[in-house]
Design a protein that fits this description.
Stationary-phase Survival Protein Sure Homolog, Chain: A, alpha/beta, about 25% helix, 9-stranded mixed β-sheet, globular
């Protein structure tokens, strides 16, 4: 009897036609059966947004042995929910977000729709990881990632992650990598975020821009440091937002 191949659900926030997700599909197809449910157009910055008040549509775009691709009108998290509730043929062994076009380290992980895919997967009880490359270009070269994608995916398929956790994996923009660093999330924040412009009809409007301000530039144990120094950054993410140290200090008995 032939052994059943792993079954992987993939989504992203750049849309199902993005080069990043299609490179990931091509890389993983030799080792797994794949179902893709991804946005029908870019949804960058969607984070963990869902669409509760607008009907969702989902269209089969491609089918071949070992691969199904659907385009969904919703957010990345919507895509995961639709996939798990309607389209998967059996329980996925792994949920992957990516490959994202752009850096999702540090504070960016909070806004990322690619991380939203992994977060939703973990919330639903699945092993989940997210892949991102520090290059926004649609012409980005993903070939240096090839062997790492296979090894990280194999690791995630064969090793349990703690409940309500996932892996955020970022690749630096390099032709080759110095190695892999397991990191913590760097402390940073976006600044100068709004640029005011004038509409041709004379009305003002705002455009989100900004730059990421490093709050601990000397730290060497962070994802930002790893990427800046040519390492693949692997950040374990905990979905339990409780601050246990603060919880143990708070006392409102006198109220």
């Amino acid at each position: 009897m032939q052994e059943e191949r792993p079954y992987i659900l993939i989504s992203n926030d750049d849309g199902y036609t993005a080069p990043g997700i299609n490179y990931l599909i091509d890389t993983l197809m030799p080792m797994a059966d794949i179902i893709v449910v991804a946005p029908d157009s870019p949804r960058s910055g969607a984070g963990c947004c869902i669409t509760p008040n607008v009907p969702l549509t989902c269209k089969l775009m491609h089918r071949e042995p070992g691969l199904e691709v659907y385009a969904c009108s919703g957010t990345p998290v919507d895509c995961v929910k639709v996939a798990l509730n309607r389209f998967v043929r059996r329980r996925p062994d792994l949920i992957i977000g990516g490959i994202n076009h752009g850096d999702n380290s540090s504070v960016n992980a909070h806004y990322s729709g690619t991380m939203g895919v992994a977060t939703e997967g973990a919330l639903q009880g699945y092993r989940s990881i997210a892949f991102s490359l520090c290059n926004h270009s649609l012409r980005a070269d993903f070939t240096p990632l090839h062997d790492y994608l296979l090894k990280f995916t194999e690791y995630a398929l064969t090793n349990e992650l703690p409940p309500f956790s996932c892996l955020n994996i970022n690749f630096p923009l390099c032709e080759s990598f110095k190695g892999v660093r397991v990191c913590r999330m760097a402390h940073s924040r976006w600044q100068n975020e709004l640029e005011e412009r004038e509409h041709p009809h004379g009305r003002p409007y705002f455009w989100l821009v900004g730059d990421c301000a490093e709050l601990e530039p000397e730290a060497t144990d962070t994802d930002r440091w790893a990427l800046a120094n040519g390492y693949v950054a692997v950040t374990p993410v905990n979905l339990d937002l409780t601050h246990y140290g603060l919880r143990d200090k708070l006392n409102f008995d006198a109220l």
